[in-house]
Every structure is written in C-alpha cells, then in structure tokens.
Amino acid sequence: MPDGPLSLPARLCLLAWDADPSRQAPVVRAGALAALARRGLLADDDGIATPLDLDSRTGDAVLDGLLELVTESRPHRWSVWVTLHARYTLDAVREQLVAEGVLRAEKHRVLGLFPSVEHVVSDARRFRSLRREAGDILAGPPETVPEPTATTLTLALAAGLLPPPSPSRAEALAHRATTVSPAYEAILQELRAALTASTLSGV
C-alpha cells in the first residue's frame, strides 16, 4: 500500500468507499485520531483522549481541525470521539481528496430544490491500486509492513472493510502498528474496540 502523499484518514476513506455510509465516518475519524496520537499530539489519560500541546499544529487541515475540536471540547473517551461529529472529519477528508485529484465533487439538487454534493472517484487507477495492495499486504508477512500502513490496515480490519486474515496475523499486524511507542498500543486498542462496536451496532 503506497504511503505516498495520502494521509492515514484519506487511505481509510478510500478503503471504506463501498461500505455502508454509516460506517465510513467512524473509520475515517479513527484514522485521524490515530494519526494525531502517532504524532504525539493526543495521549491516553485513563481512557480519555487528551491533547498534549494546546498550541501544536500539523499543517494538515483535517488533523488540525480535529485537534482543535478535541482541545475545545470537554474530555471524552476515545470511543466517543470515534463517532462524535465524525461526519465533519469525513467531509474534510473528501475535500482533501478532491484537491489532490483522487475524487471529484459533483453538485446537483435533490428533488430539484436542495443543493447536494456527490463525490465520485476520479483517479480510478490509484483507487484500485490502494485496495489491491491492501489485500496483497494482508497475505504477506506482517513484520515487513511499514508501521503507518499497519495502522491503516488494523483499523480497516476492525471496521470490517477487508477480508479478515487469521487471528494471529491480524494481531501481528496490530503489534507492528504499535512499534511507534508503547503508549500508542493502548490507544490503538481503544480505537479498534470502538470501530468493532460501531460496526456491530450499525452506528
């Protein structure tokens, strides 16, 4: 899976493209939370997502928008942030993908009255390559997977977006994802559990 210029939440957005719309926003939000945690901007405080530096910025509009939201809101558990206003993050990621030429925004009117925007894939080659390589990586040895890609696939598996590998391979992939820091392991586990719960409940 190419790490390229696509962010972690952007890659999850594309992997979730054919999923039920109610499942797309939580997995993209989880990806954004994981990206902030990997950068050391969010930490776990007894299950609470906690900003570490109130003045820090990433330069990524999606991540900075979420970080600002978390900073200005009352404390919540990771599981709450996976779904709370998650559509905002999904919409921001889609706009980012439009700007990068991966998606195209088509404007139309519902019932001829209400303006609406539908996003369609404009870079089909890149879209297919991402999904094909995800399957190839899941079939290979987890220890060779780059850590950011392991995080992407671990969250995608938790959300039921990809055919599940064996339990041992899935856990090895999750372990590979947490090599960035010991603290990140607890955070990723929280996000995985929240995604699995939201998938089962249909939230």
Automatic annotation (TrEMBL):
<protein>
    <submittedName>
        <fullName>GPP34 family phosphoprotein</fullName>
    </submittedName>
</protein>
<keyword id="KW-0333">Golgi apparatus</keyword>
<dbReference type="InterPro" id="IPR038261">
    <property type="entry name" value="GPP34-like_sf"/>
</dbReference>
<dbReference type="InterPro" id="IPR008628">
    <property type="entry name" value="GPP34-like"/>
</dbReference>
<keyword id="KW-0472">Membrane</keyword>
<keyword id="KW-0446">Lipid-binding</keyword>
<dbReference type="Pfam" id="PF05719">
    <property type="entry name" value="GPP34"/>
</dbReference>
